[in-house]
Design a protein that fits this description.
The complex is a heterotrimer of chains A (297), B (337) and C (336). Chain B has 337 residues and is an all-alpha fold. In chain B, 64% of the residues lie in helices and 0% in strands. Chain C is of the alpha+beta class and 336 residues long. In chain C, the strands form 4 sheets. Chain C has a 6-stranded mixed beta sheet, with helices on both faces. A 5-stranded antiparallel beta sheet of chain C has the order 13-17-14-15-16, with no helix packed on it. Chain C has 2 domains: 226 residues, 3-Layer(aba) Sandwich (Rossmann fold), CATH 3.40.50; 88 residues, OB fold (Dihydrolipoamide Acetyltransferase, E2P), CATH 2.40.50. The two termini of chain C are 40 Å apart. The longest helix of chain C has 18 residues. Classes of the chains: A mainly alpha (297), B mainly alpha (337), C alpha+beta (336). At the A-B interface, helix 1, helix 4, helix 5, helix 6 and helix 8 of A face helix 1, helix 3, helix 4, helix 5 and helix 7 of B.
C-alpha cells in the first residue's frame, strides 16, 4: 500500500470519528435542552391541559390523568368569566397597570434625562443609588406601607396599588432609561437647541422620539412588574371588587369550599401567557439594566 | 431692536424677536436649575414612599404599635426579644437562609449548563428559550399556582406517574404494608401528599425557587458569555485548548464577575420572597415552611401586631445592605473597565 | 450677516488646566474663519461656547456686536453643523430641514418654500422623502447644511464637518463647502484639525494650542511666517525643520533645503546633512536625515535629480530669506 493511500485512510478514519463526536455533541445538546424546557414548562403544560377537563373526568380516580377520558370542554372558562369576579380582577389589573405606567413615565423619563445629561459627575452615582432602591423589597416595607395607605385614605382600594407600585417601577425604569439616554448622542438635542428649541423642547421633540424603544421597554416592564407584585396587594386590599388578578385568583378562587381547579388554571394561564410574551420580547433590555452595564448584551 | 454696539457695522442683523426679553425667560435652559427640577418627582416619590416607610419600619419595630393602635410608644428591644424567643421565628429564619442559599447553589450550576446550551446554535432554540424563560416571566403568584396544582394531595400528576412506574402504591419499595419495606419512608399506599409533610414541603418550596430564578441567572450568564470577546475564544482555540480546558481556564474565570451578579440577584429575590411560600403552603404544614416575609405578614397583618411584624421584616435588611455593597463595588468596576 | 467676537473667553472643566484660556478673537463680516489645532486643544469648546452649548467660565461672546454670553443657543440665531451631522433619525430629510422653521412657527406654506429653496441650493431635492439612514455620508452632510441654511442664520458654526467622509469625497466636499459659503456670504467659523482643510478653505486661520491662540492670519501668513515653533511644526507635511545653532533655533521648510552643489553664495546658510532614508512619493521625493543631532527633511520635485549618498554628510544650504529664527526658550519668533 502506498503512503498516500495510507494517509488517506487515516484521514477518513479521523473524519468519521469527528463526525461521530459531532453527532454525539448534537445529541447531548438536544437532550439537555429538552430536559430544561420540560422542567420549565411542565407546570404550565399541566395547567393548560387541566383547563379543558370535565369534572367527571378530573375527579374519577380510576381514569388515566394524562388523557382526556371525557371530551375536552370550554365550560370551565365560561364559568370563570360568568360566575366569578375574574373579569373584575382583570379590569382592576389593567386599571392599576395603566396608571402605574403613566406615573412611572412622568417621574422616570425626566429623572433619567436629568441624571444622564444635566447633573454631571454625580448623576451616575445618584443613578446607582436610585437603582438600589429597587432592591428594597416590598416584604420589608409592607407593614408601615399599610399605615401610609390608610393615612392616604386608600385602604382597601385599588388606588392604593396605583400609588405604591411606582415605588419600585420608578427606580428600575429610571435606571433602564439612563442606559438608553446614554446611548443617544448629545449632538441630537444640542442640534435641536441650535435649531431654535429650548432644552425642554429639544427633549420632547428630539430626545423622546429617538428613545421610543426605551420608553416602550419601560412601559412593558411597568406592566409586568404590576402583574408580578403580590404582597402589597395582599396587605392593602381585602374586598374582592378591588383585587387584581394575582391576589384575586389565589385568594378568592382557591380557598372557597369547592376548588374549581380547571377555572383556576384558566384564570392563571389567560393572564400569565400574554405577560410572559411581552416580557420575553423585552428581556434583553431588562438584563442590560440588571448587569449595571457591566455587560453590553 | 437691539442697538448694535461694538465694532461691527452691520445694522441689519436678523435677531429673533425674543432676543431682547430679560434673561429670566431662559432660566429653564440652565442645566443647574432644570436638572434638579426634572429629578424632583422621582426623588419625592422615593423619599415619600420608600424612605419614610423604611424609617417607619424601624420605628415600629421598637414600639408597641398594633393594627388597632398605631401610636408609636418606645419599648426598646422588647419586640426583638419576643420575636427571637419564638420557635416559629427561628424556623422562619432558618428556612429563609436555607431556601435562598441552597436554591442559588443549585441555580448557578444549572444556569451554567443551560446558558452553555443556549449559547449554541440549534433548531428550535427560540422556542426553548421562550419555554425556559416562562417561570421568570409569568406573574409569580400564577406560576406558583401551577406548582400548587402539580403537587396537589389528590390529583398530582407526579404521583400518577410514579404509580404507573410502580414507585409508589401497593407492593412497591415505599409500601409500609409490605413485609420488608426497602426504604422506610411513610408515603403510604396512596399519594405522596407533597405539601403536607414538612420536609417534602420544604423541598417543594426549594424546587419552585430553583425553577423560578434559574431563567434570570441563565440570561444574565448568557449576556456575560456573548460579551467575552471572540478573539479570546479564538486564541484559546488556536492554542489547541480542548473544549473543557477552554471552559475551565478561559470562560469560567471571565464569567466569574457576572456569575456573582446572577447569584446576588437570586439571593436577594429568594431571600425576600413572600409569594412562593404564601401560595404554595401558607407557611404550613404547622409553620414548617414559614419564612421571614410570610411570618412577618402573619404576625403583623393577620396577627395585628405591627410592631412584631416590623421587627421580623427588619431581619431582611442585612442581606440587602450586603447586596447593595456588592453592587456598588461592581458598578465601580464596570465604570473603570 | 454678522461678525463674531469673543473677549477673554475662558472655560475651565474641573481642576485641570483651562480648555480655553482667555481667548480674544474677532471675525470679519462674511469671513470664513478656521480654528485649527490638534485634538484636545480647545477649539471645539471655543466653538460650543460661541454656539451657547457651553457656558464660559469667564469672558464674553458677541454676535453682531451684541453680548450673547448668557443667552441659550436658540436666542443666538446661529446654525451649527456637527461632526456627526446630528440628523434626526426619526424624521425624513424634509422634516429635518423644516425642523428649525417649525421652531419659528412659520406657516406651513412658507416652510415648504424655504425647504425647497435650501434643498435646491444643495441639490438634494430628490432625497426629501428619505430617512437619514438611507443616505450616503456626503448626502447627509448636504442635508445638515440645508438645515443650517434654511433659517438664514447670522453665523454658521461648523465642527469638523468633513471628518466622516472618506478621503476621496473629502476633496470635492471641500470645494462644495467653500463655494457654498462664498455664495451665501454668511460669516462662518470652521473647526478642524486637518491643515489641508484649513489651508484650502480658510480666509483666515486661527491656530490654537492648549486653549490659546498661537497665531491668526491668512493661510499664507501662517505657513510662511509662523509665529512660534508650534505653528511652524503643526503646519506643513513634513513640518518645518528646526535646528538649534548659535543660541537660536533656525527654522526652514523642507522645500527650501537644497544641496549646496559647490555654490559660494553669501546669501545662504550651510548645514551638514546626513541622509538616512529616501521616500519616493511619485510627484516628489523626501530625504529624511539629521543635521547634527536634529532631525531634518528635504523635499524635491521628483523631476530634479539629486545625488544620494546615504549615511554620509553632504553640504546643504538654505537661502537666508527663507530662514526663520525662534527663541529656544519660549519657542517664539525673534527678529529675523
Amino acid at each position: 500500500m502506498t503512503a498516500i493511500a495510507e494517509q488517506q485512510r487515516v484521514w477518513q478514519r479521523e473524519e468519521r470519528r469527528a463526525g461521530w463526536r459531532r453527532a454525539g455533541k448534537r445529541g447531548l445538546l438536544y437532550t439537555v435542552a429538552t430536559l430544561f424546557a420540560l422542567f420549565a414548562a411542565i407546570p404550565f403544560a399541566w395547567m393548560v391541559f387541566t383547563i379543558f377537563k370535565q369534572n367527571t373526568d378530573l375527579y374519577n380516580g380510576k381514569n388515566n390523568p394524562f388523557l382526556y377520558n371525557d371530551p375536552p370542554t370550554l365550560d370551565n372558562i365560561r364559568l370563570l368569566f360568568n360566575q366569578t369576579n375574574y373579569t373584575t380582577f382583570v379590569v382592576n389589573t389593567i386599571f392599576v397597570a395603566a396608571l402605574v405606567v403613566v406615573i412611572t413615565l412622568i417621574a422616570a423619563v425626566p429623572a433619567a434625562y436629568a441624571l444622564t445629561r444635566l447633573t454631571g459627575r454625580w448623576g451616575e452615582s445618584l443613578g446607582i443609588a436610585i437603582f438600589l432602591v429597587y432592591l428594597v423589597p416590598p416584604t420589608l416595607l409592607f407593614i408601615p406601607m399599610t399605615r401610609i395607605v390608610a393615612e392616604l385614605g386608600l385602604k382597601n382600594s385599588r388606588w392604593s396599588m396605583v400609588v405604591v407600585y411606582p415605588t419600585f417601577t420608578i427606580p428600575f425604569c429610571t435606571w433602564l432609561l439612563m442606559g438608553f439616554f446614554k446611548s443617544i448622542p448629545w449632538d441630537i438635542e444640542e442640534q435641536a437647541m441650535i435649531d431654535g428649541y429650548s432644552r425642554l423642547g429639544a427633549i420632547v421633540r428630539a430626545v423622546i422620539p429617538v428613545s421610543l424603544p426605551g420608553i416602550l421597554t419601560v412601559i412593558a416592564f411597568s406592566v409586568a412588574m404590576t402583574m408580578h407584585e403580590f404582597v402589597y396587594a395582599l396587605a392593602f386590599v381585602t374586598s374582592s371588587s378591588e383585587k387584581t388578578v394575582s391576589i384575586g385568583v389565589t385568594t378568592e378562587l382557591i380557598r372557597g369550599d369547592v376548588f374549581f381547579w380547571q377555572s383556576l388554571m384558566a384564570a392563571a394561564a389567560i393572564v400569565a401567557i400574554p405577560v410572559a410574551l411581552i416580557y420575553t420580547l423585552f428581556l434583553d433590555r431588562f438584563i442590560q439594566g440588571f448587569t449595571l452595564g457591566a455587560v453590553k448584551g | 431692536m437691539s442697538t448694535a454696539t461694538g465694532r461691527s457695522e452691520t445694522p441689519a442683523i436678523a435677531w429673533s424677536e425674543d432676543a431682547d426679553v430679560p434673561e429670566g425667560r431662559y432660566l429653564l435652559d440652565r442645566a443647574g436649575l432644570l436638572g434638579p427640577l426634572m429629578l424632583l418627582p422621582a426623588i419625592i416619590y422615593i423619599i415619600g414612599l420608600v424612605g419614610i416607610p423604611l424609617v417607619l419600619a424601624v420605628l415600629y419595630s421598637f414600639s408597641n404599635a398594633t393594627v388597632g393602635d398605631q401610636s408609636i410608644n418606645w419599648v426598646g428591644l422588647e419586640n426583638f426579644r419576643t420575636v427571637v424567643q419564638n420557635a416559629t421565628f427561628r424556623m422562619a429564619l432558618k428556612n429563609t437562609i436555607l431556601f435562598a442559599f441552597v436554591s442559588q447553589i443549585i441555580v448557578i450550576i444549572l444556569a451554567n449548563i443551560l446558558a452553555l446550551v443556549l449559547s449554541a446554535e440549534f433548531r428550535g432554540k427560540r422556542l426553548v428559550r421562550f419555554l425556559v424563560m416562562l417561570p421568570w416571566t409569568t406573574p409569580i403568584a400564577l406560576a406558583v399556582l401551577g406548582w400548587f396544582w402539580m403537587l396537589d394531595n389528590v390529583a398530582s400528576p407526579i404521583d400518577a406517574l410514579m404509580r404507573m412506574l410502580h414507585i409508589i402504591g401497593p407492593d412497591t419499595i415505599f409500601d409500609p404494608k409490605a413485609r420488608a419495606p426497602i426504604l422506610d419512608i411513610p408515603f403510604g399506599d396512596r399519594n405522596v401528599r407533597w405539601l403536607s409533610k414538612p420536609d417534602l414541603a420544604r423541598l417543594a418550596v426549594l424546587t419552585v425557587h430553583v425553577w423560578r430564578t434559574l431563567p434570570l441567572a441563565t440570561v444574565i450568564l448568557l449576556a456575560g458569555m456573548t460579551a467575552i470577546p471572540q478573539d479570546v475564544k479564538d486564541a484559546a482555540e488556536i492554542d489547541g485548548a480542548s473544549y473543557w480546558r477552554q471552559l475551565i481556564y478561559v470562560r469560567l474565570p471571565l464569567l466569574a464577575p457576572i456569575m456573582a451578579v446572577a447569584v446576588l440577584y437570586g439571593i436577594v429575590f429568594t431571600f425576600t420572597d413572600f409569594t412562593v411560600v404564601y401560595v404554595l403552603t401558607r407557611g404550613g404544614p404547622v409553620d414548617s415552611t414559614q419564612v421571614l416575609a410570610t411570618w412577618a405578614y402573619f404576625k403583623g397583618i393577620q396577627g395585628s401586631s405591627l410592631a412584631q411584624g416590623a421587627a421580623i421584616a427588619l431581619f431582611l435588611l442585612p442581606i440587602l445592605v450586603a447586596a447593595a455593597i456588592v453592587m456598588l463595588r461592581l458598578a465601580r468596576r464596570s465604570e473603570t473597565a | 450677516m454678522a461678525t463674531i467676537e469673543v473677549r477673554g473667553l475662558t472655560k475651565q472643566f474641573g481642576d485641570g488646566p483651562p480648555a480655553v484660556d482667555h481667548i480674544d478673537l474677532a471675525s470679519e463680516d462674511g469671513e470664513f474663519l478656521v480654528l485649527l489645532g490638534p485634538s484636545g486643544c480647545g477649539k471645539t469648546t471655543l466653538l460650543r461656547m460661541i454656539g451657547g452649548l457651553e457656558t464660559p467660565t469667564e469672558g464674553d461672546v458677541l454676535i453682531g456686536g451684541r453680548v450673547v454670553t448668557h443667552l441659550p443657543p436658540r436666542a443666538r440665531k446661529i446654525a451649527m453643523v456637527f461632526q456627526s451631522y446630528a440628523l434626526y433619525p426619526h424624521m425624513s430629510v424634509y422634516d429635518n430641514i423644516a425642523f428649525p422653521l417649525k421652531a419659528q412657527r412659520l406657516p406651513k406654506e412658507e416652510q415648504r418654500k424655504k425647504v425647497a429653496w435650501a434643498a435646491s441650493i444643495l441639490g438634494i431635492e430628490q432625497f426629501l422623502n428619505r430617512k437619514p439612514r438611507q443616505l450616503s455620508g456626503g448626502q447627509r452632510q448636504r442635508v445638515a447644511l440645508a438645515r443650517a441654511l434654511v433659517r438664514e442664520p447670522n453665523v454658521f458654526l461648523l465642527d469638523e464637518p468633513l471628518s466622516n467622509l472618506d478621503a476621496q469625497r473629502r476633496a470635492s466636499a471641500r470645494d462644495e463647502l467653500q463655494q457654498f459659503q462664498r455664495s451665501i456670504g454668511t460669516t462662518t467659523i470652521y473647526v478642524t484639525h486637518d491643515q489641508v482643510e484649513a489651508m484650502g478653505m480658510g480666509d483666515r486661520i486661527a491656530v490654537i494650542d492648549r486653549g490659546r491662540i498661537r497665531q491668526i492670519g491668512t493661510p499664507k501668513e501662517i505657513y510662511d511666517d509662523p509665529a512660534d515653533t508650534f505653528v511652524a511644526t503643526f503646519l506643513g507635511t513634513p513640518p518645518m525643520n528646526l535646528v538649534e545653532r548659535d543660541g537660536l533655533i533656525f527654522g526652514f521648510r523642507p522645500e527650501h533645503f537644497t544641496p549646496a552643489n559647490g555654490s559660494h553664495s553669501d546669501d545662504v546658510v550651510r548645514f551638514q546633512f546626513v541622509v538616512h532614508r529616501e521616500e519616493y512619493l511619485g510627484s516628489e521625493r523626501l530625504l529624511y536625515g539629521e543635521i547634527g543631532s536634529a532631525k531634518a527633511v528635504a523635499r524635491f520635485p521628483a523631476t530634479t535629480d539629486v545625488e544620494l549618498r546615504i549615511g554620509q554628510p553632504v553640504e546643504y544650504v538654505v537661502a537666508r530669506r527663507h530662514l526663520k529664527f525662534f527663541n529656544p526658550r519660549t519657542g517664539e519668533r525673534t527678529r529675523d
